[in-house]
Amino acid sequence: MTRISAFAAPSAGKPLAPHSIERRDPGPSDVVIDILFCGVCHSDIHQARAEWGDSAVFPMVPGHEIVGRIAKTGGRVSRFKPGDLAGVGCFVDSCRACEPCRTDVEQFCEKGPAFTYNSTEMDRKTPTYGGYSTQIVVDERYALRVPSGLDPAAAAPLLCAGITTYSPLRQWKTKKGDRVGVVGLGGLGHMAVKLAASMGAEVTVLSTSSAKQADARRLGAESFAVTRDEATFERLARHFDLIIDTISAPHDYNKYLGMLRPLGALVLVGIPPESTPVSAFSLVGGNKRFAGSMIGGIRETQEMLDYCAEHRIASDIEVIPIQTINQAYERMTRGDVRYRFVIDIASLK
Ligand code: NAP
Ligand code: ZN
Ligand code: ZN
Fold it and tell me: Helix H segments across 49-200?
């Protein structure tokens, strides 16, 4: 065991503060990663505030958008060597035997994957701790290769925000000319815009205010609409093939379903803690599809990283020292982030 520095939420909703945790000694198939950068996802906030229910485990070291350098490799490791850049996303292990694990959707492991934090290893006893820390030890099978063309800090958010938006765009086979709406221009939203535009889609950003209009165009959107203006929902009625909804707070899904063309799909990636009623009428007329999507498996995450390197896509980031993490949470809660905070882990050493 090695004791390392971290930042943790001591209990639900309490400010994050310095903390130390133990990382296991590397086994034969493990890699030890010295963490360079960790993105700040809104899921970190939901979980550190126990907004997703009382299963949250404290002290909690959040962080699942991890990029670092391999420091050490176990004897059987074949895909990494010391000095390589590597990434870790939202889970660090799974049972490896069930159908989802065998078909590259380990996030749906029947035993429950070992999420990167606020979870346990597959022994179901050892708590997992995330990337707001100096080092992580993970089986090489759950580590990603970060292509050298990507900036390590700007690549970190790809490990969650990137894959979470790439996967539904692929599931709905987004192609040139498709009309894609992106609801909420935060960490996930800005990646959805970049990725959909790179696939040739005609992207519209649907945002609460006009403050992000110029940014939306710079990120690749052709149009922009303000959702506080009710006229938007009439003007864009029956408009979209696909809407990706990234909003982290409750809102009326029926209004967004009204903006779909017949057979169009509204895909939720945002996870507001409260539930919201959906009317059958919103779905039945027009054969609308109402769906959700959760991150992506290891194979698809690697595909996304390679795709981003090829298309020169990464996140727009504001690098912060870890000591300002609580202010960053407050700013994200107000929608004040352009477009992902990334912690420079050097500030923790
Ligand atoms: P974020 O950076 O905070 O962005 C969320 C955006 O939603 C905000 O920038 C804002 O956009 C909009 N928004 C926030 N509050 C709103 C409100 N009350 N009404 C309307 N719009 C509002 O968050 P994120 O990191 O992108 O995460 C977004 C959500 O996705 C979170 O719920 C997170 O837990 C979830 N998530 C899910 C997955 C998955 O696998 N499905 C993975 C990662 C994250 P505008 O300023 O443009 O209005
Ligand atoms: Zn996330
Ligand atoms: Zn499994």
Answer: 99-102, 152-155, 161-171, 187-198
Give per-residue pLDDT as tens, 18-54.
Answer: 999 999 999 999 999 999 999 999 999 999 999 998 7
Please tell me if the CB atom of residue 188 comes closer than 6 angstroms to any atom of ligand 1: yes
Cα 256 to chain centroid, rounded: 22
Which residues are near ligand 2, the ion (C-beta closer than 5 Å)? Answer: 41, 43, 160
Q: How many residues does the chain have?
A: 349
CA angle 300–302–306, rounded 5-degree value: 115
Please report where in the chains the tokens 């708590």 appear, as a residue. Answer: 127
Specify whether the CB–CB gap between 4 and 23 falls below 8 A: yes
Q: Whose Cα sits closest to atom 1 in ligand 1? A: 186
pTM for this entry: 0.98
Give the C-alpha separation, 111 to 99, whole Å: 11
Report, as ranges of residue numbers, the positions in the chain whose pLDDT lies below 70. Answer: none
Q: How far is CA 23 from CA 18, 30, 111, 126, 294, in A?
A: 16, 12, 23, 11, 27
What pLDDT is attached to residue 53?
83
pLDDT digits (tens, 9 = 90+) for 245-291: 999 999 999 999 999 999 999 999 999 999 999 999 999 999 999 99
DSSP, residue by residue, 95-117: -SSSHHHHTT-GGG-TT--EESS
Judged on CB neighbours under 10 Å (0-12, 13-18, 19+), 250 is exposed
Q: How far is the CA of 281 from the centre of ligand 2 (A)?
A: 32
CA of 205, closest atom in ligand 1: 47
